[in-house]
Amino acid sequence: MKASTSTPSSEHNDFQSREVTFTETLKALGVNHKAHMIALCGMGGVGKTTMMQRLKKETIAYYLNVDLGEKNSSVRADKLRRGFKAKSDGGKNKFLIVLDDVRQTVDLEDIGLSPLPNQGVDFKVLLTSRDRHVCTMMGVEGNLILHVGLLIDSEAQRLFWQFVETSDHELHKIGEDIVRKCCGLPIAIKTMACTLRDKRKDALSHLEHHDIDNVVSKVFKTSYDNLQDEETESTFLLCGLFPDDFNIPTEELVKYGWGLKFFKKVYTIGEARIRLNTCIERLIHTNLLLESDDVRCVKMHNLVRSFVLGMYYEVGHASIVNHGNTLEFHADDTNDSCKRLSLTCKSMSEFSRELKFPNLTILKLIDGDKSLRFPQDFYKEMGKLQVISYDKMKYPLLPSSPEYFANLRVFHLHQCSLRMFDCSCIGNLSSPEVLSFADSDIDRLPSIIGNLKKLRLLDLSNCYELYMRVVDRDRKAISLTDDNCNEMAERSKDLSALELEFYDNNVQPKNTSFEKLQRFQISVGRYLYGDSIKSRHSYENTLQLVIDKGELLESRMNMLFKKTEVLCLSVGDMNDLEDVEVKSSSQPLQSSTFYNLRVLVVSECAELKHLFTLGVARTLKKLEHLEVYECHNMEEVRCTGGSEEETITFPKLKFLSLCGLPKLSGLCDHVKIIVLPQLMELKLDGIPGFTSIYPVKKSETSSLLKEEVLIPKLEKLHVSSMWNLKEIWPCEFSTSEEVKLREIDVRNCDKLVTLFPCNPLFTLRNLEELKIENCGSIELLFNINLDCASAIGEENNSSNLRSIKVENSEKLREVWRIKGADNSHPLVRGFQAVESISIQGCESFRNVFTPTATNLDLGALLVISIENCGENTGNDESEENIQEQEQSQEETLQEVTDTNISSVVFPSGLLHSFHNLRMLTLDNYEGVEVVFEIESESPTSRELVTTHHNQQQPIILPNLQELVLWEMDNMSHVWKCKNWNKFFTLPKQQSESPFHNLTTITIMFCRSIKNLFSPLMAELFSNLKKVHIEFCDDIEECIGGGGAKEGSNEISLNNTTATTDQFEVLFLGAYANALEI
Predict the structure, then answer these.
(1) Of 281, 208, 210, 212, which is closest to residue 250 (Cα–Cα)?
(2) CA 691, 670, 686 angle in degrees (round to 5)?
């Protein structure tokens, strides 16, 4: 797909956000790929079938038509098998078998495929399914189950307006609102668009959300019915009680599920947690739930949630769920059949005394302030309550009368204000099995809590108390403050789960037994959760220790290393990780106790020189996240020792951050190969020992990543404060491997000169965002030599680069430097998806576009912003004069041409190339005299090639909507044409005119401009609505009369009288001269 030239496909599936999935699938279907099975997975209505149809068009030469009238499956399979073999021509022809909307496992033998690979028949199976588990059961490898996600907002809007055309502004706003309610689901967008197309405005204004819900309810009902598991269905329905777009903590679902008795033949909370995780995994695989950025949380798509709310009565879970911002809840809303009540209480002042919910099993109230009042006998008519949950309630109503709570199993208080609250009444209850005060600032537990004989789980998370889950069958509750170390040591022998925080590391758990702990979160010397909201709901086994080595060994917390999943260490006198392990004679040689680590963060270890020994490195097979920072003596990640022929692999490492390591000399210099097969994000900060990131072959250049470091999946590269870094890639860098980087962010690297290698298109295929900030030596971004074959982007060299942003890089002069540019070369396709270019605070910057830029395909460009640039033009000009004296006459002429162009933002030869440009901002751009230079001659052949869809008569900037010009002191013209009269007499073949979508012009502090545009230009601006001109001292006229006199000929136009009647806003202010309209 090329954003600059493609037209909407009939399938409406050519979306940039899905191009990676499409490309990966197409590659897997290729003849050189060994896989036989590929799957597209996603929620119903998301566009899997549409993408499959597009893939069929790309891959299938002709179709094999076989009549399958047979009802017997074995006969039908045999007929298919014989058909495949007959058409294979001895293996010369290859087959693609497409299985669409697979909801249950399909046996390949039933469709005649099972023995074929062994009989010379080559085939691939492409299937689509809502259920990832089905794909796995059919034998599709995990990396070939490709997800088809929801559309981003801009794509959703584009899909909608492909079906609907309207010039009515009010109708357009209604349409945009409908698209937002569709939440990126194509089936909903398309259906509502077709509805809108046939509606009048008065009918559309009453369009409600339930209309969209009706469209998609059948889609989700099919997925729900296919679950065929009562526990999974109950978990799914439970998630509907939470507000829209909510991060739903899975641990909260465990508590609710336990209280409502969802889990059959489960006898402990631990077993319930395992069962719940299985249900969650199933729901995510079927796309009924979404993964959340918040650890140990899930999310529910808004449309899925609407479906759930509509399902409650159908499945016998009559519920009242209302999470609106302004809720008025009345007794009339009650219902004897209601089993679930979930309310946001914001703006509520009281509950009615008439409330009656005799069959209510779960009560969930959220966001009640201190003014909310409960009637005294609020719980009287709720005798079947099993779960009470208060979330962010200022004054929750605690149960005081035991006779109303015989069935209560879970009492959950989260982020409620319980400091100085008397909670002793809870001790009068006999039935609760789960009691949670998480994040509720409780400062003491009354001794009467010990009367809760059935209590299995006590949660005091983040209450600065000991949070303890006693062994499930233990009948005794334990509560200790952080000063009670001796008592804790006595009671710790029975602990199976523990959350403990000693922010003051003078107090430490001494003589405490950790042998029976299965789940724990322990922090010494720092807050357990810190600033990271992502860890709030994490229930991974966690150790965070700011401690001396001797204290760590004495506390025996290192006994937990073998069970630890998240480890954060600041041990000042530690030499390496092996230094703090438990030393055991029974431990095998070259093994380590860190084998369960998923996250490792090591910081502020003053004596640390090497992070890993070889033995430790070999055991980190589960490590996904590694951070090392502020270890000022660290020289290498892995220490010396072992064979130099050794290969080290970190098979699951996805994130690596190395920061504040001034003596770091390499990752692992003394091994043959380092393999990081899953690394996707690399962050480097404050490492001065390297001049390059990627290696130069047979060079002494100090590069961080040697040739022996293999990182095939790296997507994000963040580089900051590497003071000696001169290049990311060396100029002559090349590789046969695909570069998968999607995001590059480089900051504060003042010696950086080279960002990309020469002819960088092979590095840009997957790149989406490029950010450069405070890099004072870089002069250009992309260096392209068109005389080299690799420079010209063919079909397979197209890229996804959408955004280029450079800030405060004083020597930057050019975005592109193109050698050998002329009209004979084809377009360079590597930049065809760029939508935004922003250059700010670059003093030497001259212009985004020079005449050589006509060799670039930039048709997707939407926004250009240039601010505070060009301040060093005087110095640049002197340098150019010196160069001109040394160059040939031809080179001098080219230099003079480029210098003249630097005073024009859009030279005439380029105006036709930016068909999609929406917004242009120029702010304090020194040296610019003209914004748009318009030729009165016919366009050149190059202009015709680069114009949108190869129209034979290009339109100049037809989609430009907003023009902002600030502090352009040298600008004399916004639009400049040698002969306007001649320009307006050129033959026009389109119904649209140049600049016809321009609606807003803002010009401020531009002290050299005398008029905005001529009367002849006024006829182009039929949609201009807002003009704001202020502090422009020399301006005399908004619509100048002089424009018609610029050419040698004069012309009279009867219908081009300039008028201001069309303007909605016309602001003209603060002028030294009198101003005429």
Answers:
(1) 281
(2) 35
| E strand or H helix at 784 | strand 780-785
For the chain, give the percent of residues with pLDDT over 90: 19
- Phi, psi at 42, each rounded to 5°: 175, 170
Encode pLDDT of 1063-1074 as tens digits.
Answer: 666 776 655 454
Cα separation, 409 vs 406, in Å, equals 9
C-alpha to C-alpha distance for 119 and 516, rounded to whole angstroms: 57
Strand order in the sheet with 122-129: 94-99, 122-129, 37-41, 145-147
pLDDT band at 891 (very low <50, low <70, confident <90, very high): very low
Note whether 16-147 and 229-311 share their fold.
no
Pairwise CA distance, residues 661 & 907, whole Å: 48
Rounded to an integer, the average pLDDT of 282-301 is 82
What is the maximum alpha-carbon separation in the chain? 103
Q: Are 124 and 95 in contact (CB under 8 A)?
A: yes
pLDDT band at 352 (very low <50, low <70, confident <90, very high): confident
Long-range contacts at 709-712 (CB < 8 A, ≥ 24 apart): 709/667, 709/673, 709/674, 709/676, 710/673, 710/674, 710/675, 710/676, 710/677, 711/676, 711/679, 711/682, 712/677, 712/737, 712/738, 712/740
Burial 977-1014 (b: 16+ CB within 10 A, else e): bebbbbbbeeeeeeeebbbbbbebbbbbbbeebebbbb
End-to-end CA distance of the chain: 47
Q: Is 228 exposed, middle or buried (0-12, 13-18, 19+ CB in 10 A)?
A: exposed
176 or 779, greater pLDDT: 779
Strand partners, 783: 817
**Mean of pLDDT over the chain:** 76
For tokens 């399938």, name the residue.
11
Q: Which residue has the higher pLDDT, 855 or 560?
A: 560
The token duo for 97 is: 């078998």
Distance, in Å, from the CA atom of 506 to the CA atom of 426, rounded to the nearest integer, reads 34
DSSP classification of residue 666: B
Q: What residue ranges do the domains of the chain occupy?
A: 16-147, 153-220, 229-311, 903-985+992-1077
Of 273 and 886, which is predicted with more confidence? 273
The pLDDT value recorded for residue 1059 is: 52
- Cβ neighbours of 453 (radius 10 Å): 12
Name, of 458-472, 477-491, 607-621, 817-831, the range with top average pLDDT: 607-621
Judge whether 756 and 782 are in contact, CB under 8 Å: yes
H helices of 89-168, where?
132-137, 153-163
Q: In CATH, what class is 229-311?
A: mainly alpha
- CA distances to 251, 468, 478, 921 from 519, rounded to whole Å, are 13, 10, 16, 56
Q: Which CATH number fits domain 16-147: 3.40.50.720, 1.10.287.370, 3.40.50.300, 3.40.980.10?
A: 3.40.50.300
**Residue 851: its pLDDT value, please?**
66
Mean pLDDT of 362-387: 87
Query: CB–CB of 876/895 below 8 Å?
Result: no
Tell me the β-bridge partners of 330. Answer: none
Check: CB of residue 309 under 8 Å from CB of residue 240: yes
Q: What 3-state DSSP class applies to 790?
A: helix
